[in-house]
Amino acid sequence: TIIAVLEDEAKRRKKLQGKKVMITAGPTREQIDPVRYFSNPSTGKMGFALARQAADMGAEVTLIAGPVSLETPPKVDRVDVVSAEDMYESAMKYYKEQDVIIKTAAVADYRPALTYNHKMKKKDEALGVEMERTVDILKELGSHKTGQFLVGFAAETQQIREYGREKMKNKNLDAIVINDVSEEGSGFGTDTNRVIWMSSLEEEVLPLLDKQELSREILHRISKELADV
Amino acid sequence: TIIAVLEDEAKRRKKLQGKKVMITAGPTREQIDPVRYFSNPSTGKMGFALARQAADMGAEVTLIAGPVSLETPPKVDRVDVVSAEDMYESAMKYYKEQDVIIKTAAVADYRPALTYNHKMKKKDEALGVEMERTVDILKELGSHKTGQFLVGFAAETQQIREYGREKMKNKNLDAIVINDVSEEGSGFGTDTNRVIWMSSLEEEVLPLLDKQELSREILHRISKELADV
């Protein structure tokens, strides 16, 4: 009957009712001086799509966003950050109370060892920039977690299953979404993704989906694994 | 009379009728590898506002844009570029036929000496990145120009008149718009600017204006100087 269908739909929609979900999204910027930085081409679309969908499914969503030009989805708490260090601090501030943590952010893995407060004056000669590693936020979350369901994203071009499985183990993740960026329609700035969902329970190749549909599929699988625990 | 007022307005609006105007806008990105780059926080707003206004005043506009998230204004020909080198090539391709060239782009002045086609694998240790100077597009345009009215932008925090005048001379500009970025409401990402207009004929401190109003003021002064020649 139609009533049953509507009830099903309503149940599906509220599958994350009462759950707290933290999502990191976008790139980070690592400043050399006030007008120069290192970054990467992440647009934040995947993380924002997940935040919108999670809120729609009833979750309380905290979205930690690097510098992106996207609007905050309805009913989502957004925390804006710039650098990997900022994002790390925000993530560590909010992770404890979460049920689910999804890391989609493309966090810079290197930053300039020195940051200048004033614009460097140009010189004619070459310039050596010493870079140092940033904190591995996902790994930190993996080693500190106290029951949170932790999901990572990986973009790989080869041996994607092996690298994905390895990353999941190294970083103590509960699931990983592996993006085959060598495939057309996947990767930075696209509206679609073709991914493999991998958890301790299952491994599943999903079809090419737009980021909103993919968010629904991912969150559906997360809510199922939460219920199974 | 009202008819006279309307005629005046129409005349003002078409002051750049038949003129070709090239504008560079936005930042450039200098890739280290496919997922890492150097850049700066330019949003392209000033250049896009100028392009919109110039087209509105009847000019044929070529807008050479770095990676920005802005829509192309009506009746503007847009050329998208990524790196300083791309922007240089496009600028040199189109400059000859122009009457006016306005450089608002925040072109990276350094780029990695080496670019990798594959994502660099992370290592635990520090990383030295060798940077080299990019071409000074504005200076190249200044030394090659054959009658084009060449306008530069400068962002300064101190001795702004002296630095502005010096830049105008060094780069063979016809005018320069000097942004006092130490003032509130001026600079990267803002919707307003407080500037000094400086040409061989005049020097004028303009009030705090939004970027669309400022574009009108700048283009009005350019069209006046073109007419005076």
From TrEMBL, chains A, B:
One GO BP annotation here? coenzyme A biosynthetic process
List the residue ranges of the region (Phosphopantothenate--cysteine ligase): 21-229
Gene name, per UniProt, is coaBC
- Protein name in the entry: Coenzyme A biosynthesis bifunctional protein CoaBC
Q: Which residues form the DNA/pantothenate metabolism flavoprotein C-terminal domain?
A: 16-224
Instruction: Describe its function.
Output: Catalyzes two sequential steps in the biosynthesis of coenzyme A. In the first step cysteine is conjugated to 4'-phosphopantothenate to form 4-phosphopantothenoylcysteine. In the second step the latter compound is decarboxylated to form 4'-phosphopantotheine.
Q: Which reaction does it catalyse?
A: (R)-4'-phosphopantothenate + L-cysteine + CTP = N-[(R)-4-phosphopantothenoyl]-L-cysteine + CMP + diphosphate + H(+); N-[(R)-4-phosphopantothenoyl]-L-cysteine + H(+) = (R)-4'-phosphopantetheine + CO2
UniProtKB keywords: Decarboxylase, Flavoprotein, FMN, Ligase, Lyase, Magnesium, Metal-binding, Multifunctional enzyme
Give the E.C. number(s).
Answer: 4.1.1.36, 6.3.2.5
Q: Give the record's cofactor note, including how many are bound.
A: Binds 1 FMN per subunit.
For this UniProt entry, the molecular function terms from Gene Ontology, in alphabetical order, are: FMN binding; metal ion binding; phosphopantothenate--cysteine ligase activity; phosphopantothenoylcysteine decarboxylase activity
Q: Does the keyword Transcription regulation apply?
A: no
| Presence of keyword Magnesium | yes
Q: Which family does it belong to?
A: In the C-terminal section; belongs to the PPC synthetase family.
- What pathway annotation does it carry? Cofactor biosynthesis; coenzyme A biosynthesis; CoA from (R)-pantothenate: step 2/5; Cofactor biosynthesis; coenzyme A biosynthesis; CoA from (R)-pantothenate: step 3/5
Part of the full-length chain shown: 170 to 398 of 398
- Supply one GO CC term from the record: phosphopantothenoylcysteine decarboxylase complex
Q: Where does CTP bind?
A: D109, K119, F153, K167, K171
